[in-house]
Amino acid sequence: MEISALQKARYAYAPKLPAILTSPLAEIAVEFGKPTESLADQADLRQLFKHSYGKPVAKFVKGKSDKNGRKLTVGVILSGGQAPGGHNVIAGIYDGLKKGNKASKLYGFLGGPSGLTDNKTIEINDPMMDEFRNTGGFDMIGSGRTKIETPEQFAASLETAKKLGLDAVVVIGGDDSNTNAALLAEYFTAQGSSVQVVGCPKTIDGDLKNEHIETSFGFDTACKTYSEVIGNIERDANSAKKYWHFIKLMGRSASHITLECALQTQPSICLVSEEVEAKALSLSAIVDQICDSVAKRAANNENYGVVLIPEGLVEFVPEMKKLIAELNDLMAHHADEFAKLSGFEAQAIWLSKHLSKESGSVMAALPSEIGKQLLMDRDPHGNVQVSRIDTEKLLIGMVEAKLAGMKKAGAYVGKFSALAHFFGYEGRCAFPSNFDADYCYALGFSAFLLIAAGLTGYISSVRNLVAPAAQWLAGGVPLTMMMNMEQRHGSKKPVIRKALVELDGAPFRTFAAKRAEWAVKTSFLYPGAIQYYGPTEVCDQPTKTLKLEHLK
Fold first, then answer.
1. Which of 23, 230, 234, 274 has the smallest number of Cβ neighbours within 10 A?
2. Has 205 been annotated as catalytic?
3. Are residues 452 and 490 in the same domain?
4. Do 287 and 189 fall into the same domain?
5. What distance in Å separates the CA atoms of residue 551 and residue 425, rounded to the nearest whole number?
6. What distance in Å separates the CA atoms of residue 448 and residue 398, rounded to the nearest whole number?
7. pTM surpassing 0.85?
8. Which of 167, 175, 176, 205 is catalytic?
């Protein structure tokens, strides 16, 4: 197989580990804290997780252990969307197992959780593992979005575990995938099985975090990848002195990516969904904000700028949120009737009779292309697929119309020409940054130690991430500690709560203190490409979000 020079060089990279994880395995022990409680709904969750609720936080410390050298057989699952560093999590698990006992085995479940239910596996060996170290993507074993939720799926999972002689399953995924891991751990224990389940925190969206999970892996690399391109676009705009670039970025429920990219690049405008919702900002209010910047910059003869937009923005704008909720409900309850309608015109007429007056007016005012996108096939959860809605183009059209009115009134004298971009898949499989390569490897190695210690229902945790890797703290957190109950498909379900941008948090406050200046004065930053070799302060830095959250 032909490989690039960078890939060849990255194979040789040795990820840095917390000091405790470099100790001889016989000298790594587990220290437990006090019993834990869930974030909310304690009584309901205690009832649902009778065998796994309330476990203590685990921390790896210097001490004696005779468990870490046991022969173990483990299966690993990549679940959900890709994120840079997934292969290094697997490498950390693999190297830990082999360091503990050369006879230990690691199976990769092919295609995500369905690999567990359908018993589709491959045994990972040295040549295979070495081919994927420090590389992006999930192509080593593939991923999938199957949810293990039916009695038949749970039973099939246990049957697969028995056939393979598994001691444990590691689920590498986001909040939904790790909720699934918690349910799987509870099911195995309730069935009298000793098969353990351990999770690892993955998602480029950055919304799986708390006191013990300081960031999810992949967020660092994805944000640096997007920020490089945003910086390139800013430099082009500042060179050509024309074009407003409207850039949509991944992040459906949370705006962490957009906010981090704004901190790295200092655009003219950055919209944050959580603020839009908190202030109940309408589409017209958002357009007014953008137009104010366009007009002021035009007065300085700067007819260019950059606007960053979170992918899920439309779901946070009050009138759009109400419209989407009504559409989801209508299309769920009248799916057959709606499917018989031929063409957008017929659909629009049908909707005008079924939507509320307010939502009907909003729908009618939208460009037809946006209206069509709102009616596309739903995702597996029955929700509109926001990544397919051209929010950036919607805003461009509305800004153009508003500026035309302002020009007639003499309130705007510039020239507005806009280009639309969506940066999403470009960041999901990038070569992991040094930070993500190190962090992921440490998460995987910690997952191995949690398994060796006999723990189940935990998620691997590595903290103190703003310090050099040697000073990171490794351990595990009970999955039930991160949960609450939420309404899903008409009934309350246990879920790991998504971490949204906190408007009183240091990252947002830092941005908010500067944005008025950025909106008028060209303040672009050009972060450049991810650096893998060179000074530590260039190559190993975590995100600005992480540093601000730790006030470093």
1. 23
2. yes
3. yes
4. no
5. 31
6. 53
7. yes
8. 205
